[in-house]
C-alpha cells in the first residue's frame, strides 16, 4: 500500500484520541486513552507534557499503526490539543514544569490587574482585539516570570500543547495563528505576527525570541525526524501539519468553516467558534484567526460544562459505573419538567470565561427544597449550561456577528436530552453531523491539507449533516423568564461568591 492514509491526534482535558483515515474521509482505526488533570492549588490546573501529552501521542500512534497498518502507509499527520496552554522549555526543548492549562486555570488574576494598570485596558484591547481574561497566556507568562524565577531563568521557548507535540515530531517550534492570538498583548492580529511593543511588561528583559514561529493550522510545519520515527512508528520524513487547539480542529471536523457557521463543542468545557468574513472585536469574547489561511474567527468558551456533569457523576452517582451513571442521570433528567421545579444553577464551578469573564465566579444552586431530588439537580445542571450557551450566542449577535448555522459536536452532543434543552432555552436549531468523531478527525483533514492531498472543497465529502434539533415552542415563555433570573442571580450573588473565593485562597 502506498502512503495514502492520514493520522489525526487530539489531546484533550480528560482523554486523548487518535484516528487513521483514508483520503476520502473513511475512518479505518480509532483509539482513546483516558487521563486526568492536576490541581496543585486553588485556581491552578495543570497537565504533564511528557507523561500525558507526549506519552499519549506515542501510545496512540503505536496502536493505530499496528496490525494491517504501519508508518509507511501514512501520508501526513496533524495534532491538536487543549489550549491555549503555557509550557516553558529549556534549550534542548525539555519541559521545565507541567503545562499550565487554558482559561480553567485562573492563576493569572494579579498579573492581569498589573498589565492593565501598566499598559491600560483600552490600549490592550485596541492592540489585541480582546480583553485580558483567564484565557490569555500573556498574564500567565508574567506569572511564571514572577512566581517561578528559577524556571524562568532556564526557559528558552514558551510554547503550547499542540505546538509542543508538533515540535516533538519535527524539531521545529511553530504555533498556529488561532492559538497565538491568545498570547496577548504579544500578538498583533492585523499584521498576523508577534509584536514587541508590549513585550517588556510580560517578558521583562527577555524578547520575542522565546516565542515559536507562526503559521496557519493547515500549513506544513515540517517532517517527522528520525528520533520521532523511532518512538512513534511513523516513517521518517512524513509531513506534519502545524495543528491547533482542539476546539478549532473540532470545528473543521464538522464542516464549520464557512462565514456564519457557529460550532458549539460540548466537551469538558463548552467552546464556541464562529467563522466570520471580517472580525468584530468585543471585550466579552475572543477575536482570533481560523484554521485556514486568512480566516477570521470569533471564539468564546464556558469553563465548566462536561466537567460539571463528570463531577456530578463522581460525587452524586457513585453507585453506578461511570458510563451507566450518565445514562441513568440523563434518563432521570428527561423526566423532569423544564425549569426543574424551581431550581436554578450557575455552572461556574471553575470560574467563568465568556461572556462574563469572571475567574472568581463560583457555582450557585438556588431554590432548593426538600422536595427536590437528584434528578432535579441534574436537570438544573443541564439547564444552567443551556442558559450560559444562550448568553454567549446573544453576545455574538449583540456585537453584530452573523450567526447563520449552529453545528453541535462533542461528547455532550451525543445526548439528545441536553441538545433539546439547549435548543429550547436558546430558541436556536442545531444541526448534527452524521459523524462526530471529534477534533482528531479534523486533524486528519488538516494533515491532508498540509501534505498536499486535499483541498478545502474536499471537506464537503468528509462531512454530512444527519439530523437537526429544532426548539420546542411550549417551554419558551418559562425559559425566557428563568433566563432573566439566571442573569440576575449572577449579579446578585457576585459579591458573596467573590468573598468566598478570596477566603478559599
From TrEMBL:
Residue intervals of the Carbohydrate kinase FGGY N-terminal domain: 6-251
Sequence ranges assigned to domain Carbohydrate kinase FGGY C-terminal in this UniProt record: 262-451
Cited PANTHER family: SUGAR KINASE, XYLULOSE KINASE
Family of this protein: Belongs to the FGGY kinase family.
Domain of life: Bacteria
Species assigned in the record: Deinococcus metallilatus
UniProt name for this protein: Sugar kinase
Gene3D superfamilies associated with the record: 3.30.420.40
Enzyme Commission no: 2.7.1.17
GO molecular function, one term: D-xylulokinase activity
Pfam families on file: FGGY_C, FGGY_N
Amino acid at each position: 500500500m502506498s502512503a495514502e492514509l492520514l493520522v489525526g491526534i487530539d489531546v484533550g482535558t480528560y482523554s486523548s484520541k487518535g484516528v487513521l483515515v483514508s483520503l476520502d474521509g473513511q475512518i479505518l482505526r480509532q483509539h482513546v486513552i483516558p487521563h486526568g488533570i492536576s490541581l496543585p492549588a486553588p485556581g491552578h490546573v495543570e497537565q504533564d507534557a511528557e507523561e500525558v501529552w507526549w506519552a499519549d501521542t506515542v501510545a496512540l500512534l503505536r496502536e493505530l499503526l499496528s496490525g494491517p497498518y504501519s508508518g509507511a502507509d501514512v501520508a501526513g499527520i496533524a495534532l491538536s490539543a487543549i489550549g491555549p496552554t503555557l509550557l516553558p522549555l529549556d534549550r534542548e526543548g525539555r519541559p521545565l514544569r507541567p503545562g499550565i492549562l487554558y482559561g480553567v486555570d485562573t492563576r493569572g488574576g494579579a498579573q492581569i490587574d498589573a498589565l492593565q494598570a501598566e499598559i491600560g485596558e483600552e490600549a490592550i484591547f485596541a492592540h489585541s482585539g480582546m480583553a485580558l481574561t483567564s484565557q490569555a497566556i500573556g498574564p500567565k507568562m508574567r506569572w511564571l516570570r514572577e512566581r517561578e524565577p528559577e524556571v524562568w531563568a532556564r526557559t528558552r521557548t514558551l510554547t503550547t500543547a499542540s505546538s509542543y507535540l508538533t515540535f516533538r515530531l519535527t524539531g521545529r517550534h511553530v504555533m498556529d495563528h488561532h492559538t497565538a492570538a491568545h498570547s496577548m498583548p504579544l500578538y498583533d492580529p492585523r499584521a498576523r505576527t508577534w509584536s514587541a511593543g508590549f513585550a517588556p511588561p510580560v517578558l521583562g528583559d527577555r524578547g520575542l525570541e522565546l516565542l515559536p514561529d507562526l503559521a496557519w493550522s493547515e500549513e506544513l510545519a515540517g517532517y517527522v525526524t528520525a528520533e520521532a520515527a523511532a518512538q512513534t512508528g511513523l516513517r521518517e520524513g512524513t509531513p506534519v501539519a502545524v495543528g491547533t487547539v482542539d476546539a478549532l480542529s473540532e470545528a473543521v471536523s464538522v464542516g464549520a468553516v464557512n462565514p456564519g457557521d457557529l460550532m458549539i463543542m460540548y466537551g469538558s468545557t463548552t467552546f464556541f467558534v464562529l467563522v466570520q468574513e471580517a472580525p468584530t472585536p468585543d471585550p466579552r469574547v475572543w477575536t482570533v484567526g481560523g484554521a485556514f489561511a486568512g480566516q477570521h474567527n470569533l471564539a468564546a468558551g464556558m469553563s465548566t460544562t462536561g466537567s460539571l456533569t463528570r463531577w456530578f457523576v463522581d460525587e452524586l452517582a457513585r453507585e453506578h459505573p461511570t458510563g451507566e451513571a450518565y445514562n441513568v442521570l440523563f434518563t432521570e433528567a428527561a423526566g423532569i419538567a423544564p425549569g426543574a421545579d424551581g431550581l436554578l444553577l450557575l455552572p461556574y464551578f471553575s470560574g467563568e470565561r465568556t461572556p462574563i469573564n469572571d475567574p472568581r465566579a463560583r457555582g450557585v444552586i438556588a431554590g432548593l427544597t426538600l422536595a427536590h431530588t437528584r434528578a432535579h439537580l441534574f436537570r438544573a445542571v443541564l439547564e444552567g449550561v443551556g442558559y450560559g450557551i444562550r448568553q454567549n450566542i446573544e453576545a455574538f449577535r449583540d456585537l453584530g456577528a452573523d450567526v447563520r448555522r449552529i453545528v453541535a459536536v462533542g461528547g455532550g452532543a451525543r445526548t439528545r436530552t441536553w441538545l433539546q434543552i439547549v435548543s429550547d432555552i436558546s430558541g436556536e436549531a442545531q444541526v448534527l453531523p452524521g459523524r462526530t468523531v471529534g477534533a482528531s478527525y479534523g486533524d486528519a483533514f488538516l494533515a491532508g491539507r498540509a501534505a498536499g492531498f486535499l483541498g478545502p472543497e474536499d471537506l464537503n465529502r468528509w462531512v454530512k449533516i444527519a439530523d437537526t434539533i429544532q426548539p420546542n415552542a411550549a417551554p419558551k415563555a418559562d425559559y425566557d423568564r428563568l433566563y432573566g433570573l439566571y442573569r440576575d442571580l449572577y449579579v446578585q450573588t457576585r459579591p458573596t461568591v467573590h468573598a468566598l473565593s478570596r477566603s478559599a485562597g
